[in-house]
Amino acid sequence: MLKLDFHPAGRHFLQIPGPSPVPDRILRAMSYPTIDHRGPEFGALGLTVLDGIKKIFKTAQPVVIYPASGTGAWEAALTNTLSPGDTVLMYETGHFATLWKKLAENLGLKPEFLGLPGTEGWRRGVQPDLIEARLRADSGHAIKAVCVVHNETSTGVTSDIAAVRRAIDAAGHPALLLVDTISGLASADYRHDEWGVDVTVSGSQKGLMLPPGISFNAVSQKALDASRQAKLPRAFWGWAEIIEANHLGYWPYTPNTNLLYGLAEALDMILGEGLDRVFARHQRLAGACRAAVNAWGLEIQCVDPAVYSPVLTGVVMPEGVDADAVRKTIYEHFDLSLGTGLGKVKGRMFRIGHLGDCNDLTLLAALGGCEMGLKLSGIALRGSGVTAAMDYLTSHVAKPALKVAA
Amino acid sequence: MLKLDFHPAGRHFLQIPGPSPVPDRILRAMSYPTIDHRGPEFGALGLTVLDGIKKIFKTAQPVVIYPASGTGAWEAALTNTLSPGDTVLMYETGHFATLWKKLAENLGLKPEFLGLPGTEGWRRGVQPDLIEARLRADSGHAIKAVCVVHNETSTGVTSDIAAVRRAIDAAGHPALLLVDTISGLASADYRHDEWGVDVTVSGSQKGLMLPPGISFNAVSQKALDASRQAKLPRAFWGWAEIIEANHLGYWPYTPNTNLLYGLAEALDMILGEGLDRVFARHQRLAGACRAAVNAWGLEIQCVDPAVYSPVLTGVVMPEGVDADAVRKTIYEHFDLSLGTGLGKVKGRMFRIGHLGDCNDLTLLAALGGCEMGLKLSGIALRGSGVTAAMDYLTSHVAKPALKVAA
Amino acid sequence: MLKLDFHPAGRHFLQIPGPSPVPDRILRAMSYPTIDHRGPEFGALGLTVLDGIKKIFKTAQPVVIYPASGTGAWEAALTNTLSPGDTVLMYETGHFATLWKKLAENLGLKPEFLGLPGTEGWRRGVQPDLIEARLRADSGHAIKAVCVVHNETSTGVTSDIAAVRRAIDAAGHPALLLVDTISGLASADYRHDEWGVDVTVSGSQKGLMLPPGISFNAVSQKALDASRQAKLPRAFWGWAEIIEANHLGYWPYTPNTNLLYGLAEALDMILGEGLDRVFARHQRLAGACRAAVNAWGLEIQCVDPAVYSPVLTGVVMPEGVDADAVRKTIYEHFDLSLGTGLGKVKGRMFRIGHLGDCNDLTLLAALGGCEMGLKLSGIALRGSGVTAAMDYLTSHVAKPALKVAA
Amino acid sequence: MLKLDFHPAGRHFLQIPGPSPVPDRILRAMSYPTIDHRGPEFGALGLTVLDGIKKIFKTAQPVVIYPASGTGAWEAALTNTLSPGDTVLMYETGHFATLWKKLAENLGLKPEFLGLPGTEGWRRGVQPDLIEARLRADSGHAIKAVCVVHNETSTGVTSDIAAVRRAIDAAGHPALLLVDTISGLASADYRHDEWGVDVTVSGSQKGLMLPPGISFNAVSQKALDASRQAKLPRAFWGWAEIIEANHLGYWPYTPNTNLLYGLAEALDMILGEGLDRVFARHQRLAGACRAAVNAWGLEIQCVDPAVYSPVLTGVVMPEGVDADAVRKTIYEHFDLSLGTGLGKVKGRMFRIGHLGDCNDLTLLAALGGCEMGLKLSGIALRGSGVTAAMDYLTSHVAKPALKVAA
After folding, report:
1. Which of B7, B376, B393 sits opposite C402 (nearest CB)?
2. Residue from D216, D183, D204 nearest D54 by CA
3. Do D368 and A365 make contact, defined as CB atoms within 8 angstroms?
4. Which residues, including other chains, have CB under 8 Å from residue A160's CB and lie 6 or more apart?
5. Distance (Å) from the C-alpha of residue D259 to the closest C-alpha of chain B?
6. B30, closest residue in chain D (CA to CA)
7. B28 contacts in D (CB within 8 Å)?
8. Is the ipTM of this structure higher than 0.90?
9. Touching check for C92 and chain B: CB below 8 Å?
10. C29 and C68 share a domain?
11. Tens place of pLDDT for every residue, chain D, 406 residues?
12. Who's near A341: CB < 8 A, 6+ residues apart?
């Protein structure tokens, strides 16, 4: 068997913004023997996860589960609703928005990339007024879809999806609203139905605390209607057959059985804790993390407090410091994985994930690893971030609702 | 946690032709915590599996691993090599060949479906002379690819891929040769390079003994060249970026980490035993299974002994018997899952899988479950299949190469 | 990691009469991380298992759980109740009764070994009239305890414990009744309170379907009273401190935490199925196993049908055949472990376990392995045992109570 | 399945001085299906662990492995070597030394309890001169054994075993030397042979990183000789039969199979890292922990720096503070388990374990939990212990020997 931890002892701290740490309960659920995907047990499993996942998306409409990782769900959202050469309005919030745009191009669509100049858009969320203005200008309705990222994993900036919906409506434009919340789902509040989203794209390896390998499209009736006209070739990603087979808890082709076991367990954990408590927990840990970055005297990538991500925090390095060299030092000395800077901010920042199965002490450990690694890298810090985080945590006491008898 | 076995006690026997039973070693390997897919441990894992999987396909050329189940790899083989409206010559060997054809249509290709009339093609392998004749007739080389299934999972019939290659060459035709060996790989001998296959499609949940969720394209240089001209839109399935990232053991988007753990373990098991011994084991178990069916006085779906599948055996029910009712009786009484009849043979047959992590006694158990279930269903049997299988096994003694010190 | 299966592929069949196969659910429960044995979670675990285990012993009195394997619980039963030099009446039912007697001698007790001559006692259960006669003769009440084995693991013979109780009462003798049901508990009906047993000894690795490592003393009030006078030195095995600490779910010294996780799961499985259904399942499989032995024309070790064990069946070899050579052949060819002959019957018989997590097809597989191995060993069989077992199973239809929606 | 973590999310931090956190690799190894304890695979397993464990004890003499938790190994050391009424010289280092003495009394021995007055002995290690003086006074050699604890788990104080050996030799006394290193083994240097120890007692759940359930006696020739004369009744604990069966890798009674799987894995991990590196790692983490306690302005239970434990650190509370109330606050808010104060120091201190599978960030997390919990408990701290620990760790850089290719 491969020995996969290169460090001699102790637990690895996986604080990238996904894959997030997979709880033992889920790893154990996933190790149940694979069953017949056409048998009665599978049907029961399928109905359970298809029902539960709707609660996470806050939707009463279909959620399609793909046996493929998240990039596939991006592709699915586009191929099901659009036709070759269609114009789509995409918004540059960061690296993942950029990748989604590139994917749209590869599929033969014509994405128009809206955003603030330079890296400014990488530090603020979507500006709905820009979208509204652009749509108003599109009097011929050439734009078929508006695509935005809810939680930019590359920056730690969220966007106000309800406001994007309002912008589209204000412009009186019929474009579909497609949203990527791959790293936001189950960590930040998300409301597919209430916000009027047409397709929501997500994946397993973030707030759902699963390994990568399954991904999602939550689908509105308007999107379903559009899919009947859409001309992009599609087979594997086609919604219709899947939704049909899902009625009895099955899939038209082989599903990713063991990840569905994990999903059933994750739903049990998340819905058992309650989404509101899950979101509050994320907010509190994110607050403590930002307190640490501030105490260090370092800059946070997100410059608008209204859109701080509860999922991850981007930490900007002082001028002249190679963020990846710092990350390497931290990894090698302290067995801690942080997210790298991607795209336009490569080498300029690293990202601390504080999502999913994370608690106060795990976050402190991660911040301790950062603080020590920054020092070993010769970076002058204004103060102790760990101490600031502890102050934050003890002054925002959230005694967990223990299941302990008195 | 979901309780997924509806039976009160004892182990489920999963004898469908895939997903095949996942060995404990692999389930355990898969339950290792998910790691950073951009970290050094992952790179080591990636290089290990990318190297090992080539040995399974018997190729020195790239094998692309997708974080998606097998149907996706079908799509990938087509979208990487073909353009909208291309004619492809497909061969009807059974239900999965039919599904692949339907998928090609969905993608906007023009598949031409060759084969024997009625269900005759479902009982014999590919007839290379038909392919040769058709290609000779295609003097304008409108046909861009020939697509055949190596081991028809719906029937238990294999096809002679080397002979198909010879047929194409004899016709002097430039079409690509695309082969599906989703259920054949690592159970039946397969030689991607030697047989001159351009794209081989496979999946994880059969001979590789993994859960479903990853799939493969082994790719020839000719296929790579074709991919540069191919016009079908593609992004998630695109070979170029993946092969590029694979050089260091990484993927351009999030891979299915925990299934790759399992793949590393599976490669260790299969290459440790040795492919030749693995194939011989499958042949022996298949022989015992057919001895049982013959003893029962029932018909085997495959009528040409030259192309009996070592992976599964299709058992045809006597006229008037509903095969699915028999399967249900067997499942409910004996906690044994068998493959259903698919497509043209729905209700007419069931399939016994004897692939992957199967041994003599597991096969006997499955045959015992069939024999008892057939009797409980009121079907008159000529004799005991289990007894015949035992005779076969003891007269084809294969004392395993035990790792026991004398 | 050690590779522990010497066979190249497929599942090992563990059909010794214990350790019995440990279900995946239990292995998974046991792999939960070890917790603080003085913390609140542990207290909840402790109270759960201490409550549940009483239902298995059918007792309202304390059940002491030791972090030690079964032999320790034998020692505990004696050291808690007896004093150096005490006479105990033990009954020779087979090898384990003999070992218990030897253990008593090692502890400085004076066991008197009652039984039928030669190996006759190894083929029949306890004869209560012999016990009654011996106790009547003991007018001075020198005998302090009567020790019998409920299910002799070495022979496949049970004994009527209620009848032993009646014999003691009929003799008007005050001796304690100590019973070993290490291999009987949770497979054969057992009633600690109703049968008036003073100490019942059991272990984890049989009907409870756990790995070895924890063991039990169910204790009557009379035994507790005796323990206050008993003079054998004791510390680790002392009941008083354990029972005291158990009130809050704890132990006075470090318990075997992970096996207690497994026990909680096992109790959930067994009590969920219902003890009566569990016992009926064992009886049915035992019946099928004996049908096979009869069909082979071989002798069953137990000669009194009234006391056939539902747990295991001893199969006597024809004169001149070395049973261990047969077992070795079966193990090497078919990856099947059978129980060896022990003590007086060494080399004369082997034992087929059909307890715990066993179902129809697992038993058939085991019988198939035996039948083929017997043939490979050159032993002439009268007929097919597997066929006879299938006939038995289909004529004793026990369609399991499936949790399948209609 | 029992849900055993009462906290809603994130990983529990188990920082009691044992059970220590069990690494995933070991939990996974332990979940391999239980095998026949008399079969060939088991023999291979047995020989592997019996060989490896000697390297941990640094002995060429037998190490007996019991399927019982550590208290049993205490009992075994005494019952194998002593006779009823024997005088043994025991040394009061703390609560576990006291418990061992009580156990000796329960077994009918006459322990004489040496030590410094009050709780002074609980803050310093064994004083060898006191032992030497007492033995010199025992001219009639009434004392049969000297019993000391190598690493007092209740205090965080070690003792110099080599010096105890020299003291015995200097007195020219024939008493056996029995040492408990239940919590020291594989964390602190220990040399059974070189130090002339006659019986070393240890357990699985500390430095070996296993769950509780197996325990050890390393045995000298002199101890073996003594065991032939020793008259305490013994059966389960008897060395002779076990050592005899161990020659082929087996045990005379049912061993704790799944914990032996874990032991094989643990040996692989520890011997793979190298004992010297393991010890250095423990020393470094212990240094960081003490730096934290000092920075808080709190007292360390151990007052002699020469005998600081590398395994755990006892933290004394300010006068008037209930240590268990602080522990409860820490547990409830931060999901961190600390060791309670035991015996004479109950309520006065808590213990931080930093043994086994621990690394820098796990220790920091634990210290962070303590620091926040102390503050929430209203205890004034002089400074930040976490900051001090980070300073210690970065100034004692131990870049781990990573298995990373350059």
Report:
1. B7
2. D216
3. yes
4. A125, A126, A128, A307
5. 16
6. D28
7. 28, 31-32
8. yes
9. no
10. yes
11. 677 788 989 999 999 999 999 999 999 999 999 999 999 999 999 999 999 999 999 999 999 999 999 999 999 999 999 999 999 999 999 999 999 999 999 999 999 999 999 889 999 999 999 999 999 999 999 999 999 999 999 999 999 999 999 999 999 999 999 999 999 999 999 999 999 999 999 999 999 999 999 999 999 999 999 999 999 999 999 999 999 999 999 999 999 999 999 999 999 999 999 999 999 999 999 999 999 999 999 999 999 999 999 999 999 999 999 999 999 999 999 999 999 999 999 999 999 999 999 999 999 999 999 999 999 999 999 999 999 999 999 999 876 656 554 3
12. A154, A323, A324, A347, A348, A349, A350, A351
Annotation: binding site of D for substrate? 351
Query: How far apart (Å, rounded) are the C-alpha atoms in residues C293 and C375?
Result: 14
Per-position DSSP letters for A279-331, written without gaps between them: HHHHHHHHHHHHHHHHHHTPEES---GGGB-SSEEEEEPPTT--HHHHHHHHH
Please name the residue that has the structure tokens 């003495």.
Answer: D101
Strands A63-66 and A349-353, how do they pair? unpaired
Last residue in a domain, options B218, B250, B271: B271
D23 touches chain C (CB under 8 A): no
Tokens of A310: 């509860």
Count Cα atoms within 13 angstroms, Cβ side, for A158: 24
Say yes or no: B313 and B230 in one domain: no
Closest C-alpha to A364, from A342, A392, A347, A386? A386
Question: Is C399–B332 a contact, with Cβ atoms under 8 angstroms apart?
Answer: yes
Say whether D40 and B405 touch across the interface (CB within 8 A): yes
Q: List the alpha helices (DSSP H) in B67-127.
A: 70-81, 95-106
D261 in contact with C, Cβ within 8 Å: yes
Q: Is the pTM of this model over 0.95?
A: yes
Q: Do A365 and D369 touch (CB under 8 A)?
A: no
> Strand ranges (DSSP E) for C8-62?
13-15
Closest-CA residue of chain C to D16: C36
Provide the domain count of chain D: 2
From residue C92, give the alpha-carbon distance in Å to each of B111, B285, C73, C97, C155.
Answer: 78, 46, 19, 6, 12
Q: Which residues of D touch C211 (CB under 8 A)?
A: 34, 256-258
Which residue is it, tokens 């795990």?
A: A362
Which residue, among D31, D32, D335, D361, would best test binding to A if mutated, counting the most A CBs under 10 Å from its CB? D361
Report the Cα D50 to chain-centroid distance in Å: 20
DSSP reduced 3-state for C145: strand
Bridge pairing between strands C215-219 and C299-300: unpaired
How many residues in chain D? Answer: 406
Domain boundary among C271, C289, C304: C271
Query: Which helix (DSSP H) or strand (DSSP E) does residue A15 occupy?
Result: strand A13-15
Give CA A174 to chain center in angstroms.
26
Q: Which ranges of B297-337 would DSSP assign to H, the alpha helix?
A: 323-334
Euclidean distance between CA atoms C133 and A151, whole angstroms: 84
> Which CATH number characterizes residue B280's domain?
3.90.1150.10
Residues 136-195 of D with CB under 8 A from C: none
Q: Are residues A90 and A226 in the same domain?
A: yes
The amino acid present at C389, given as its one-letter code, is A
CB within 8 Å: C372 and B384: no
D neighbour chains, 3+ CB pairs within 8 Å: A, B, C
The answer to whether residues D41 and D140 belong to one domain is yes
B252 and A124 in contact (C-beta within 8 Å)?
no
Q: Do residue C280 and residue C251 come from a single domain?
A: no
What is B133-177 written as a DSSP string? HHHHH-TT--EEEEEEESEETTTTEE--HHHHHHHHHHTT---EE
